[in-house]
């Protein structure tokens, strides 16, 4: 091999049937967790999950995700207060049995989860030099969503549960966390060890919404 020749690329891994079956289990058992134990999350495991999440694809290789751990009690209290306001307002939009059912749902584990992670999109990042964003600037936020899903799967594989809380006021949360200008909230995650495990989603189990039988339908054109 000459000095100018590039090094030989490592062969790609071979994913066999056994691996694919376990991967299917991981996808099926990924759950939006709302009931957490107060057991601390191992810091090394959390760091590993974040490192794996950072392997997610991003437009222009911009990697616009910014994870913020929320630990200060006053900041957490501001987030919880926002959730409670929004949750009460949402409940009031329903009527009769649906309102009763909504009121019974546990929609966040904000008080129990040992780890809170706010995930932002750095909309002002220069990384990626704008590639792929001129016609679809929302690709930055989509990239953050892909990273969050990767983190979710990695956490599940490490026995850690994740709950995505969307019943929040983004501006209130952003102000409470005092993040840099241009960081837009995409997700607020509760992270910890689940106190119970279920194969079916919570909203299916409690009668809110069944799985759509044609959710994976391929539309031909």
Question: What does it look like?
Answer:
The chain is built from seven helices and four strands, in the order H-H-E-H-H-E-H-E-H-E-H. With 221 residues, it is α+β, with helices and mostly antiparallel strands. It has one domain (37-205): NADH Oxidase. It has a four-stranded antiparallel sheet, with helices on both faces. Helix 2 runs antiparallel to helix 5 (139-157) and helix 3 (73-92) runs antiparallel to helix 6. The protein is globular and about 70 Å long. The N and C termini lie far apart (49 Å). This is Cob(II)yrinic acid a,c-diamide reductase.
List strands and helices in order, with pairings:
Elements lengths: L16 H13 L13 H11 L11 E5 L3 H20 L3 H9 L10 E8 L16 H19 L3 E5 L4 H8 L5 E10 L9 H4 L16
Beta-strand segment tally: 4
Number of helices: 7
Name the CATH homologous superfamily: NADH Oxidase
CATH topology: the name is NADH Oxidase
* Biggest beta sheet summary: 4 strands, antiparallel
Number of individual domains? 1
SS-based structural class? alpha+beta
- What's the order of the H and E elements? HHEHHEHEHEH
CA-based shape = globular
Low-confidence parts lasting 5 or more residues at pLDDT below 50? none
The residue-averaged pLDDT reads 94
Keywords:
221 residues; 4-stranded antiparallel β-sheet; alpha+beta; 7 helices; 38% helix
Précis, in short:
Pfam families: Nitroreductase. By secondary structure, this protein is α+β, with helices and mostly antiparallel strands.
């Amino acid at each position: 091999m000459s000095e100018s020749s590039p090094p030989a690329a490592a062969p790609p891994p071979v994913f066999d049937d056994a691996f694919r079956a376990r991967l299917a289990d991981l996808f099926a058992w990924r759950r939006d967790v709302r009931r957490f134990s107060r057991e601390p999350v191992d810091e090394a495991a959390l760091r590993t999950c974040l490192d794996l999440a950072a392997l997610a694809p991003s437009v222009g290789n911009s990697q616009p995700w910014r994870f913020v751990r929320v630990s200060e009690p006053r900041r957490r209290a501001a987030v919880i207060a926002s959730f409670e306001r929004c949750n009460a307002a949402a409940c009031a939009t329903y009527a009769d049995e649906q309102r009763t059912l909504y009121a019974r749902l546990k929609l966040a584990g904000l008080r129990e989860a040992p780890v809170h992670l706010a995930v932002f999109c750095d909309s002002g990042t220069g990384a990626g030099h704008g590639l792929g964003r001129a016609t679809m600037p929302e690709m930055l936020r989509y990239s953050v969503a892909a990273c969050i899903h990767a983190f979710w799967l990695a956490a599940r594989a490490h026995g850690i549960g994740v709950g995505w809380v969307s019943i929040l006021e983004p501006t209130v949360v952003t102000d409470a966390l005092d993040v840099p200008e241009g960081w837009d909230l995409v997700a607020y995650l509760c992270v910890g060890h689940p106190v119970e495990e279920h194969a079916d989603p919570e909203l299916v189990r409690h009668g809110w919404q069944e799985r759509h039988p044609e959710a994976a339908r391929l539309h031909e054109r």
